[in-house]
Design brief:
This protein is mostly helical. The protein has one domain. It is about 75% helix and about 0% strand. Helix 1 crosses helix 4, helix 2 packs across helix 3 and helix 4 packs parallel to helix 7. It is globular and about 55 Å long.
Length: about 180
């Protein structure tokens, strides 16, 4: 798990380092294209069908649009804020997803202890970055983009869990998120 978190967190650092050679948003597009190609190979090896009528549904298109928007905000936001700040703001997504699932998936209602955990997470972000918001406003746009990316990631999760997409295989759901044409 530590290795996985390291790799995920290092994505933003690598993007910032590569920014002089390729725009950040272009990096996001290339990354998605490579991911789609790898997923096609994986699906072919496993002989799984990733395209179906569900791929043309509004739910699948909504998941794809939300996923694309998330990465657009991440990579655009990196131009205005530090990679470390972006990573922290992106990882507001689980808390935001918990809130969204509470409202849209009856089996995911939050109990008081879970509400307290969500509030603690938001309080921690406020404490960690509160002074930076007041002192240095240079990264506010990038920070806002990070929060938007987190909200879109959370919304993608809610759309998948609250609709028939939750019954699709993981590879199909990932294909829908990458917005591949059916």
């Amino acid at each position: 798990m530590v290795t996985c978190c390291f790799i995920w967190g290092f994505n933003q650092v690598a993007a910032k380092l590569a920014a002089p050679a390729m725009t950040l948003v272009m990096q996001g597009g290339v990354r998605s294209a490579i991911a789609a190609a790898c997923l096609l190979v994986w699906a072919r090896i496993r002989a799984s069908r990733c395209f179906s009528a569900m791929a043309r549904s509004g739910r699948a298109l909504a998941a794809g649009a939300l996923f694309a928007g998330e990465f657009l905000f991440i990579f655009a936001g990196l131009a205005y804020t530090g990679a470390a700040r972006m990573v922290v703001f992106i990882y507001l997504a689980p808390c935001l997803a918990a809130l969204g699932l509470h409202w849209f998936v009856p089996s995911e209602r939050l109990r008081p202890q879970q509400w307290a955990g969500v509030l603690c997470a938001f309080a921690g972000i406020t404490l960690a970055f509160g002074d930076g918001f007041a002192v240095s406003r240079g990264s506010l746009l990038g920070d806002a983009f990070g929060v938007m990316a987190a909200a879109l990631w959370a919304a993608t999760t809610v759309v998948i869990r609250a609709t028939g997409l939750s019954s699709a295989s993981a590879s199909k759901t990932l294909f829908y998120s990458l917005r591949l044409p059916p």
